[in-house]
Amino acid sequence: MSREKGLIITARIISMIFTPFYLPLVGIALLLTFSFIKEAPTDYKLMLLAIVYILTVFMPTILIFIYRLFRGWSLQELGQKHHRIVPYAISIACYLGCIWVMYYLHVVYLVIDIIIAALLIQAISVIVNFFWKISTHAAAIGGVSGALVGFGFDPMLHFYPLLWLCLSILVAGIVGTSRIILRQHSTAQVVTGYFVGLVTAFLVTASNYLINIFST
Question: Which of 1, 62, 67, 138 is the most exposed place for a label (fewest CB within 10 A)?
Fold first, then answer.
């Protein structure tokens, strides 16, 4: 196997592992592990993770797969800018459904903030992609970084995310590089996507803290 072929295979594996669909699941898993929510019963935490997985990972994946088969597109064709609109719409609809379920179950606002941040990142990506293609993979990992910083700002959470933040930045570099190797995005598209996710998730997750600061 040539070095170039090995890089391409590795980049594809990385892109599959760090799919954007896992953004809310990762964020909520961190909350359930490191915030005060960790004191909740195990059954309750597993229920939350199951709901988030079904509505933000499983359902969008299955529906987008069915749509791709219906259109007769390959994965590369689905990645084209003008083919991404319907998959984005499917994902956004599933996220809205997840938010509704969370409100219906009266889930703590921190969990809902994660879903809202992921939804906004998706929506902003859709709008930007009308004019210029950005990396949703980079936006997703940027969202993880932004959420870590946002929750770290809230002293009530006693959450100190420096190690996790460094890890998320490292993963962002790996994911961004894989997208460039696969020629799915340019460096500018990867960097822009990352900062879209970073800023959006930070503003959502730190919103309560920022409102209290500016209102005093």
Answer: 1
